[in-house]
Design goal:
single chain; 98 residues; mainly beta; 5-stranded antiparallel β-sheet; 1 helix; 5 strands; 7% helix
Length: 98
């Protein structure tokens, strides 16, 4: 339990739920690094659809599709009225370890 909170944390509740966490998938090599990148890590997103440039992001999970590995990434891009938060499945080739 955390000070100032009543009840259990989300982590504690999840651990006591009895539901097993999803199986870990082996992550693909990070762009230009040649080493595996673990889940839940900061990354650079290179030229995502509709937002050319390099954007800081958070890699949430991996999945393997017919055309290779994709990372589920949350990243912010500049929008017409300020920053816009995007969550998308992005090809591993567009992701780089940070």
């Amino acid at each position: 339990m955390h000070p100032g909170r009543s009840g259990r944390s989300l982590e504690e509740r999840a651990a006591r739920s009895g539901v097993a966490p999803p199986p870990a998938h082996p992550p693909p090599p990070a762009r230009g690094a040649g080493t595996a990148q673990p889940r839940g890590r900061h990354c650079w997103v290179h030229d995502p659809p509709g937002a050319p440039g390099v954007w800081p992001g958070l890699l949430v999970e991996w999945r393997q599709a017919a055309r290779g590995w994709h990372g589920r990434v949350a990243y912010a891009v500049a929008g017409p009225h300020g920053p816009v938060l995007v969550e998308a499945w992005v090809p591993a080739a567009l992701l780089e370890q940070r």
